[in-house]
Design a protein that fits this description.
The complex is a heterodimer of chains A (117) and B (112). Chain A has strands at residues 3-7, 10-12, 18-25, 34-39, 45-51, 58-60, 68-73, 78-83, 92-98, 111-115. Chain A has 117 residues and is mainly β. A 6-stranded mixed β-sheet of chain A has the order 2-10-9-4-5-6, with no helix packed on it. The relative contact order of chain A is 0.32. Chain B is mostly beta strands and 112 residues long. Helix content of chain B is 0%, strand content 48%. Chain B contains no helices and 11 strands. In chain B, strands 2, 4, 5, 6, 9, 10 and 11 form a 7-stranded mixed β-sheet that branches. Chain B is globular and about 40 Å long. The N and C termini of chain B lie far apart (36 Å). The chains are: A mainly beta (117), B mainly beta (112). The A-B interface holds A 44-47, 50, 59, 61-62, 95, 100-105, 107-110 and B 31, 35, 37, 39, 41, 48-51, 54, 60, 92, 94, 96-97, 99-106.
Chain lengths: 117, 112
């Protein structure tokens, strides 16, 4: 079964850092672009970042550029999102997705990030 | 960024009746490879989004054939031929042609 399982969410103070992880199973992880999409409470969906199969290309939405870093470890079938200088507006459920923006198909169950003092 | 505009934002439907959701983009979604990367997602209450339709009109495996997608260029539609109780949720269109990928505001489908 194809599965994405996120972890690492929690409560963090403004200006703090958090690292999200996504464990992939049931497919050849190294063959796919991967991404992160977020959803603020009661709001719509926002694409955050993408990473190419070998990690050589990365794309970020303007609102997180310079603060968030997407990375992957193909040997561990894992995707990561390092989030620094967190702001209240980063509060959201963060979903791990399979595929770049062209072919996004599978979503994880999400992990909640709350930025608050 | 490409703006995706959905209508209506709320759609009360009688069981067994059809439903239609419109999605318009601020730019053409035809990519340089000739494909149009317009997807439709369903998000049931308390769940993650699930893709229903990709590249305008291709239904994902396991998606009931009462769901269909159509359109071209900047104008797209998701249709449900006969709404069932399990179809309640929020539906999003998403364009993956231009970076960043962007989503419509969502259309909430509920049973009358």
């Amino acid at each position: 079964e194809v599965q994405l399982v996120e972890s690492g969410g929690g409560l963090v103070q403004p200006g703090g850092s958090l690292r999200l992880s996504c464990a992939a199973s049931g497919f050849t992880f190294s063959n796919y672009w991967m991404g992160w999409v977020r959803q603020a409470p009661g709001k719509g969906l926002e694409w955050v970042a993408n990473i190419k199969q070998d990690g050589s290309d990365k794309y970020y939405v303007d609102s997180v550029k310079g603060r968030f870093t997407i990375s992957r470890d193909n040997a561990k079938n894992s995707l990561y999102l390092q989030m620094n200088s967190l702001r209240a507006e980063d509060t959201a459920v963060y979903y791990c997705t399979r595929g770049g923006t062209h072919v996004v198909d599978i979503w994880g169950q999400g992990t909640m990030v709350t930025v608050s003092s | 960024d490409v703006v995706m505009t959905q209508s209506p934002l709320s759609l009360p439907v009688t069981l067994g009746q059809p439903a239609s959701i419109s999605c318009r983009s601020s730019q053409s979604l035809v990519y340089s490879d000739g494909n149009t990367y317009l997807n439709w997602f369903q998000q049931r209450p308390g769940q993650s989004p699930r893709r229903l339709i990709y590249k305008v009109s291709n239904r994902d495996s396991g998606v009931p054939d009462r769901f269909s997608g159509s359109g071209s260029g900047t104008d797209f539609t998701l249709k449900i031929s006969r709404v069932e109780a399990e179809d309640v949720g929020v539906y999003y269109c998403m364009q993956g042609t231009h970076w960043p990928a962007t989503f419509g505001q969502g259309t909430k489908v509920e049973i009358k």
